[in-house]
Amino acid sequence: xxxxxxxxxxxxxxxxxxxxxxxxxxxxxxxxxxxxxxxxxxxxxxxxxxxxxxxxxxxxxxxxxxxxxxxxxxxxxxxxxxxxxxxxxxxxxxxxxxxxxxxxxxxxxxxxxxxxxxxxxxxxxxxxxxxxxxxxxxxxxxxxxx
Length: 146
Fold this sequence. Notes:
This protein is an alpha+beta fold. It is 44% helix and 17% strand. It has helices spanning 9-61, 72-82; strands at 66-67, 94-98, 118-122, 127-132, 137-143. Strands 1-2-3-4-5 form a 5-stranded antiparallel β-sheet, covered by helices on one side. The chain starts with 8 loop residues before the first helix and ends with a strand.
């Protein structure tokens, strides 16, 4: 704008102020766009982290309260030596180890159970035996009902 000659210094000052405002306006229009993307990205990351924490909490709350650990033959042989009534020989029992007592305490079979006890479940013979390997003793022996 070399051809423009201001009439006085006020007009020149106004022109400079208008140019500065125009420059600031273009700069401020670009910054919110970048910050909007940062905010959106942060929000998306927060949502995924929250979902991940929720899934972790759900699966940690729904864990199995017992787990199978020992080989079936070893436990059955130990229980067979201790139990008074003969064990069913025509089926292999389901063997589980008690790992949490809280949800099982309301059931009569687990009244005297401890963590680490082994449960043998004979589904065809409808019999359940709670065995304590540390004492090599039968804690409970029950007949299952439908």
